[in-house]
């Protein structure tokens, strides 16, 4: 479904990503884990068209994503939930969700029902300014907004960051549910333990390259991963 | 008291035109953080278009107003496309200097093509004065005020209720997240320029009717005053720009009324300085720290 080959991305003079390869197959949950600064977010932003690579390829089906605008990439069926949630402050919860369906006006009503079903709290708070939601609720809104675009591939950037433990469990359960309903998921996490528990496969990134790869269970049990990311 | 009320009426008429102009400044700034210094010249083009269609085709005021709004909307979008879009990823100062260049281009281009002389704006609406409780109100003042208020209410409905308006607010508050939901920033920016320029064009026709004279440099001073109005109201804030426009109009007529006509422009700039010192984010602006 998604193929990333020898991806290299620079931030000015900094080589943030230095030759990353991975694939995401239809129906999977794939996770990229690694410490802060490993280049995970940069990879995700390149897939969604916010950044352009210096070299390498990103293909989705037979589309070359490095040539498409962010808007065209959303239209092709890829939606990203950005790190730090980035809900539209000053817009109501409802307006945020409607903006998620910006390219899918015909499916707005149906998809809204699906999202409200998945996140009942958003329905309760639909007329509230998104900025007044708690962190966990904002994360749900950001996810709901991405789902409004009816993505085939959902990119999640650090969805558990800064959340209370009760919300973290909830968010991971919802990611599993979204995947079970037929959406492929690429998940970026610092919370390696929980990400690997729900993932089919994982890639460990460090210093802009892939250090290790395997199934979620393999990586959970790997000595190297345990030592580096799971606190022994 | 009568003099005071008279000046309030005059100030509101003038202020509603500043408000229409200030809205364009503030919307464009809200979306792409550009002070569009050519905005006052769009207003000049609006006035010239009104002059042209009324004289040539003898259309009535409303046709002149609406056609002028369509023409200036198109012009604003064209300027954005040709002059500002190629600089989207350049430093902000580059776009700012380009805006000043566009302003000179429009002023001198119009002088070159049609002459720099001042001309009389045709009286598409015959002026009538009414005495109400000792105050003189002209039908043109009422027309200006009512038209401006209708346009502002219409703008508010577009921004708050339509999909494109919601997308405008989304891009203004978080351009990156807006791109991630599939909003094409170019469409929204183009729409914003069109909307702001249409209001400026309407302001141009209204001022022609009010002051009876137009010339290619007529947009310079009102353009700067409307910019001050936008800053006073809090740049980026739509209700702020409307309030700022009315305040500047009232201030200017007030200063004239107390016999300091020669200082009416200076008074506006004093307000700008005072606002920048004591309330840098304006009356309704958000105090956002600039990221370096």
Structural account:
The complex is a heterodimer of chains A (232) and B (292). Chain A contains ten helices and ten strands. Chain A is of the alpha/beta class and 232 residues long. Chain A has two domains: 155 residues, P-loop containing nucleotide triphosphate hydrolases (Rossmann fold); 61 residues, no CATH class. Chain A has a six-stranded mixed sheet with strand order 6-7-8-3-9-10, with helices on both faces. In chain A, 46% of the residues are buried. Chain B is mainly alpha-helical and 292 residues long. Chain B has one domain. In chain B, the strands form two sheets. Chain B has a two-stranded antiparallel sheet. Chain B has a two-stranded antiparallel sheet with strand order 2-3. In chain B, helix 3 crosses helix 8 and helix 6 packs across helix 8. The mean pLDDT of chain B is 92. At the A-B interface, helix 2 and helix 3 of A face helix 6 and helix 7 of B.
């Amino acid at each position: 479904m998604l193929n990333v080959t020898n991806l290299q991305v620079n931030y000015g003079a900094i080589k943030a990503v230095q030759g990353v390869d991975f694939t995401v197959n239809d129906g999977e949950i794939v996770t990229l884990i690694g410490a802060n600064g490993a280049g995970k977010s940069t990879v995700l932003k390149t897939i969604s068209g916010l950044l352009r690579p210096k070299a390498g390829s990103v293909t989705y089906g037979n589309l070359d994503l490095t040539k498409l605008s962010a808007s065209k990439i959303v239209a092709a069926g890829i939606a990203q939930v950005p790190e730090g949630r980035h809900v539209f402050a000053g817009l109501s919860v409802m307006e945020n969700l409607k903006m998620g369906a910006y390219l899918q006006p015909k499916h707005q009503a149906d998809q809204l029902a699906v999202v409200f079903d998945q996140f009942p709290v958003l329905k309760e708070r639909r007329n509230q300014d998104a900025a007044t939601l708690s962190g966990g609720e904002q994360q749900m809104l950001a996810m709901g907004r991405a789902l409004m675009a009816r993505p085939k591939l959902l990119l999640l950037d650090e969805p558990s960051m800064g959340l209370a433990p009760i919300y973290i469990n909830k968010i991971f359960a919802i990611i599993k549910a979204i995947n079970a309903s037929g959406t492929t998921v690429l998940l970026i996490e610092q919370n390696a333990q929980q990400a690997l528990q729900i993932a089919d496969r994982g890639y460990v990134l460090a210093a802009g390259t892939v250090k290790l790869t395997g199934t979620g269970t393999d990586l959970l049990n790997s000595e190297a991963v345990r030592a580096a990311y799971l606190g022994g | 008291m009568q003099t005071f009320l008279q000046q309030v009426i005059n100030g509101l008429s003038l202020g509603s035109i500043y408000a229409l102009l200030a809205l364009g400044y503030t919307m464009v700034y809200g979306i792409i953080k550009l002070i569009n210094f050519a905005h006052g010249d769009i207003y000049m083009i609006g006035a010239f278009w009104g002059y042209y269609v009324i004289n040539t085709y003898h259309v009535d005021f409303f046709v002149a107003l609406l056609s002028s709004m369509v023409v200036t909307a198109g012009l604003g979008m064209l300027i954005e496309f040709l002059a500002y879009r190629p600089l989207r990823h350049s430093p902000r100062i580059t776009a700012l200097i380009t805006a000043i260049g566009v302003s000179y281009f429009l002023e001198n281009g119009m002088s070159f093509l049609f002459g720099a002389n001042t001309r009389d704006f045709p009286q598409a609406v015959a002026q009538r004065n009414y005495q109400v409780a000792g105050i003189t109100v002209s039908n043109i003042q009422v027309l200006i005020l009512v038209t401006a208020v209708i346009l502002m209410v219409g703008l508010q409905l577009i921004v708050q209720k339509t999909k494109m308006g919601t997308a405008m607010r989304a891009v203004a508050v978080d351009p990156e997240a807006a791109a991630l939901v599939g909003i094409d920033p170019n469409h929204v920016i183009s729409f914003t320029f069109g909307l702001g320029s249409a209001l400026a064009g309407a302001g141009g026709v209204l001022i022609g009717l009010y002051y009876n004279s137009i010339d290619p440099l007529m947009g310079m001073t009102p353009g700067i005053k409307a910019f001050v109005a936008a800053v006073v109201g809090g740049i980026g804030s739509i209700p702020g720009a409307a309030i700022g426009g009315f305040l500047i109009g009232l201030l200017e007529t007030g200063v004239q009324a107390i016999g300091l006509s020669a200082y009416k422009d200076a008074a506006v700039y004093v307000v700008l300085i005072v606002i920048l010192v004591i309330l840098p984010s304006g009356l309704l602006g958000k105090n956002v720290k600039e990221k370096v």
